[in-house]
Write a structure and sequence with these properties.
Blueprint: H1 4-9, E1 12-16, H2 22-28, E2 37-41, E3 62-69, H3 82-95, E4 102-104, E5 108-111, E6 114-123, E7 130-137, H4 153-157, H5 163-183, H6 188-191, H7 193-199, E8 207-211, E9 217-225, E10 231-234, E11 239-242, E12 246-249
Parallel strand pairs: 1-2
Antiparallel strand pairs: 2-3, 3-7, 4-5, 5-6, 6-7, 8-9, 8-12, 9-10, 10-11
Helix pairs in contact: 3-5
Length: about 250
């Protein structure tokens, strides 16, 4: 597939018909590459999401890409916003097609209560750069999706979508948001990023359970996303700030 529009938005662009993982490939070749170099593929054999979950999709059905960033924020908290920033860029691109997406903390995009996109940011071993990888379900039917809690843009809009046009819009949005965050030295409040994400947060204000990487699970109400991009959770006994965890939205009684 040709990605003419996407390649024009990126500072460098590579398309692979098939690969193991766009994140892994881009990290391996990152030295000397400019920011906003983009690697995309039609099919990943070893794609990963958060908590080391696999990410698989039928060839040609999704947008799967990774973007190279070299952040040098004065405010180190800016790093904690990069996955959420990418979720916002994707949400903005999806909104142009009709749906009203929401962001589930820390790195998913929902339409209604179903996941349409996931993001995974990974740093290089020497911390000189990071890549933000993302997948967007575009043209799958309901039967082609792996779980009941997933959806695709074609299901939500009733029509197929141009993957090149969608990826180009995500890259354009991401560049603008990143430039604004960089101009604010990584301060997501000053840049307006925090406010924009809170406006379309599916998590803040909801009862949730959070499972931490060590397996511990807590229940409470998501109250806010703080200046560092952490979820502020109020439990029955304390207020926690969560930097990493698997969030499940619970039904309100």
């Amino acid at each position: 597939m040709e990605y003419l529009k996407s390649s024009q938005e990126a500072t460098g662009f590579e398309y692979l018909e098939q690969t193991g993982s766009t994140n892994r490939d881009l990290l391996a070749k990152a030295e000397g590459l400019p920011e906003f170099y983009v690697l995309t593929t039609d099919f990943q054999t070893a794609g990963k999401g958060r908590m080391d979950r696999s990410w698989e999709a039928l060839p040609g059905s999704s947008v799967m890409a990774s973007v190279l960033l070299r952040p040098s924020f004065t405010e180190s908290s800016g790093i904690g916003w990069l996955s959420l920033m990418t979720a916002l860029a994707i949400s903005q691109a999806i909104a142009e097609l009709g749906p009203s997406p929401k962001i589930k903390w820390p790195n998913d995009v929902l339409v209604g209560d179903k996941k349409v996109s996931g993001i995974l940011a990974e740093a290089s071993a020497d911390l000189s750069c990071l890549v933000v990888g993302f997948g967007i379900n575009v043209n799958q039917t309901k039967a082609q999706l792996p779980v009941e809690t997933a959806t695709s843009l074609s299901i939500e809009t009733g029509r197929s979508a141009d993957r090149d046009q969608l990826l180009a819009a995500v890259i354009k949005n991401l560049k603008q948001l990143y430039l604004e965050l960089t101009a604010a030295s990584g301060d997501a409040t000053i840049s307006g990023l925090r406010e924009a994400i809170l406006k379309i947060s599916a998590t803040v204000g909801q009862p949730v359970s959070v499972e931490f990487p060590d397996g511990k699970k807590v229940f409470g109400k998501a109250q806010d996303i703080d200046a560092a991009g952490r979820l502020v959770l109020e439990t029955s006994s304390e207020t926690l700030t969560v930097s990493a965890g698997d969030v499940l939205h619970l039904r309100k009684a």
